[in-house]
Design goal:
Length: 428
């Protein structure tokens, strides 16, 4: 290692530790604020984002030009792209977060012991949250403002593809907080694309980072889960399934499959594998396939599916484990609910899975037995979104089993403490 490299590494370490210290101070300042103060800051951020739309769009154009030169996929470009409507949608998302009930100070439980001690479990912030994500600029605003709503400070590290867009958004957000007399360091963006900065965040910045939230592909999440020295709220890819049961309403099935796959193919709630009951595959699969092809979707089927719809490409085992994020759908014919459950148990990432059926007993068995963060009956997998759950927005869809699961909104970014009130009790 050269002296220049050592000096560069030391400078990055110093910068990151300073960010951590400022985030900790901001989180303590947030803890002294009331819910009206946080709401005021959020409303100011929404106004600032709308006012900064020309600068945000200009920055996004820089990112898009660079992304096209790099040859990013259509799905990645769609995630990265902003236009006036999307910027307004980001601001509207902040408005929705501002309108949420404040999650702090909620009494989650309360009880008394025979000795007269009064116990309460009360919601409090996590503290400082590090969010590491890839190419979606809207995550910058969603993550920063959800942390603010829940009284947490955020250290954001975006992917290099969205760096200009994210900086423009954070500049607007911080300026709004400063103008309102609130701690601007509650929302910070790592200023370098150096991957070593991620390692610094995963180290915990000398105890200043309390939780890490990765949002991106499998390689990012696996690296974070492997290397993090602080707790992680994990978000794996969306290998989403929809099972069309023999008792499905045919038109409902067609509509739901097409929407689940094609509404937006680049989101984690996009359908990736269609399972169809052999009892109705001969008559219903051609209708579904025709509608998908008309919508511009490439189909890859197993042997049984290709007998029914010969024009499909051949699905390989790799297809069952692939998150396409593109207009491609894998299709398999299964023998009833048990066949569908076996396939999902083998291949699901635990994100979102849905059943289409008019048989309520079958639906309830599916909902009970599929162990995913989100399970749906007669609804599109595209509803795997914090906004659709009434959370205003989300940092991601957690697929783990510790602390939070499913859409991670403001309420899920809190923890609790116990408040015990006595009248002079001593323990014998």
């Amino acid at each position: 290692m050269t002296a220049q490299t050592q000096s560069s590494d030391a400078a990055l370490t110093e910068t990151m530790l300073d960010m951590g210290a400022r985030a900790r101070a901001a989180s303590r300042a947030l803890g002294r604020l009331g819910p009206d103060d946080r709401t005021r800051g959020l409303k100011a951020i929404a106004v600032a984002i709308r006012a900064a739309a020309p600068a945000i769009l200009a920055a996004n154009k820089q990112d898009m030009d660079a992304a096209r030169k790099k040859g990013l996929s259509d799905a990645m470009l769609d995630r990265l792209a902003l236009d006036a409507a999307r910027v307004d949608g980001i601001a509207s998302g902040v408005d929705a977060i501002a309108a949420l009930p404040d999650p702090l100070g909620r009494e989650l439980a309360r009880w008394q012991q025979p000795n007269g001690l009064d116990f309460a479990r009360v919601a409090v912030p996590l503290g400082v949250i590090g969010i590491i994500y890839e190419s979606r600029p809207n995550v910058t605003a969603d993550a920063g403002t959800l942390c603010l709503r829940s009284g947490n400070a955020a250290i954001l590290r975006c992917g290099s593809e969205s760096t200009h867009s994210s900086h423009a958004l954070v500049d607007a957000m911080r300026a709004a907080l400063e103008a309102e007399g609130l701690p601007a360091d509650a929302i910070q963006l790592v200023g370098t694309t150096d991957r070593a900065a991620v390692g610094q965040m995963l180290s915990g910045l000398d105890g200043q980072v309390d939780v890490i939230v990765p949002r991106g592909g499998r390689s990012l999440v696996e690296r974070v889960q492997k290397d993090a020295r602080v707790p992680v709220i994990g978000h794996l890819e969306g290998l989403c399934h929809m099972y069309v049961d023999g008792a499905a309403d045919p038109q409902k099935a067609v509509d739901l499959v097409v929407n689940a796959k094609m509404r937006r193919t680049g989101v984690c709630g996009s359908l990736e594998t269609l399972l169809i009951d052999a009892a109705v595959a001969d008559t219903l699969l051609p209708r579904i396939a025709s509608a998908l092809v008309d919508a511009g979707c490439e189909l890859r089927g197993d042997a049984r599916a290709r007998v029914i719809v010969p024009g499909m490409k051949t699905a390989t085992e790799e297809d069952w484990g692939t998150e396409y994020l593109a207009p491609i759908l894998a299709i398999t014919v299964v023998d009833g609910l048990d066949g569908a459950l076996a396939h999902i148990e083998r291949w699901s990432s635990g994100h979102t899975d849905s059943i289409v059926t008019e048989d309520k007993d079958v639906a309830e068995r599916f909902l009970a037995r599929v162990d995913s963060a989100i399970v749906l009956h007669n609804a599109s997998t595209q509803f795997a979104d914090g906004g659709e759950f009434g959370f205003g927005a989300e940092i991601g869809i957690a697929t783990g089993r510790i602390h939070a699961r499913g859409p991670v909104g403001a309420e899920q970014l809190t923890i609790y403490k116990y408040v015990v009130r006595g009248t002079g009790q001593t323990r014998p």
